[in-house]
Amino acid sequence: MSENKAPTASPRTDAESVGGAERTQLQMITRRFLRHRPAMISLVLLGVITLAAFLGPYVWTWDHLVHREIPPSVPPNADHPFGTTTAGHDVLGQLMRGTQQTLKVAFTVSVLGTVVGSLWGATAGYYGGRVDALMMRVVDVFMIVPLLVMVAAIAGSVRGGTTWYAVALIIAMFSWAQIARVVRGVVLSLREQEFVEAARAAGASPGWIIVRHLLPNAAGPIIVAATLLVAVAILLEAGMSFLNFGIQLPDISLGQMIGEARTAASTRPWLFYPPGVLLVIICLTINFIGDGLRDALDPRQTMGRR
């Protein structure tokens, strides 16, 4: 006489319960992101760098300015862990200030570029036809222009272009086009969806539909593009400062530090390598975070690589 076997429980998927309750989309996205080790390590590392840059000056002895008490051209020692410059700067103080200014430029550019690009791309995608064609030709112009050349040229001719916020505004002027193209492509696939038709039937204005319905549903690609724009802005600011068109002394940025020390890479390496290595680490962490966000928001990316 055979015994009846109890049916085995099927394994739970990401869409199933946490303590019996169905997971929300946000919970699933968060869980996938937390499982992305490179992204999590990068997020922690970027957080540590950011805290050290903004809180470090309150506890460290020297700032980024010249001090007569600082001996010139001293290699790393107990009093100056990253050495000093010929003029009498403490390199650690410069690194903290430079990281501050570089991150402020990068995140400002990311916010401004994302807002402008998202609104422009969503408007073009929603209206379509001649409006779309005209608006995207403007995007094409901004995309084919040599970005660093134009940004450096404008920064060199604008009064006050060496302040961090002026540099951020100039970079943002030329950094929104790629996001506009991404958002436009997403909106083209969303504008015929039932929820958009329902909003139109209810009498919603085009502006309300774009802001209230289309942009929230395009949030995934927008977030990823905004994250990657941070790294692009960091490299652009570094290139501008290296060419002496960006932030300049007495203020400082990582790119400006690299530019000032480019002739001392072999004789005084403590001036050249710390800002260079820090710049690379920041860009890598942001790229890994963007990769993790892309996988979390679109799990098909992860499935395609397996």
Question: Could you characterize what this model shows?
Answer:
By secondary structure, the chain is mainly alpha-helical. The chain has a single domain (30-299), classed as MetI-like fold (Orthogonal Bundle). 66% of the residues lie in helices and 1% in strands. It has 13 helices and 2 strands, in the order E-E-H-H-H-H-H-H-H-H-H-H-H-H-H. It has a two-stranded antiparallel ribbon with strand order 1-2. Strand 1 (17-18) and strand 2 form a beta hairpin. The longest helix has 37 residues, at 91-127. It is elongated and about 75 Å long. The two termini are 46 Å apart.
Name some characteristics of this structure.
306 residues; mainly alpha; MetI-like fold; two-stranded antiparallel ribbon; 13 helices; 1% strand
Q: Which CATH class?
A: Mainly Alpha
Unreliable stretches covering 5 or more consecutive residues: 1-22
CATH architecture: Orthogonal Bundle
Briefly note the structural class of the backbone. Answer: mainly alpha
Output the CATH homologous superfamily. Answer: MetI-like
- Gyration radius, to the nearest Å? 24 Å
Number of helices: 13
Strand count, sense and barrel status of the largest sheet are: 2 strands, antiparallel
- The CATH topology assignment is MetI-like fold
Strand order of the largest sheet: 1-2
Distance between the termini: 46 Å
Q: H/E series, N to C?
A: EEHHHHHHHHHHHHH
Return the average pLDDT rounded to an integer. Answer: 83
| Share of residues in helices | 55-70%
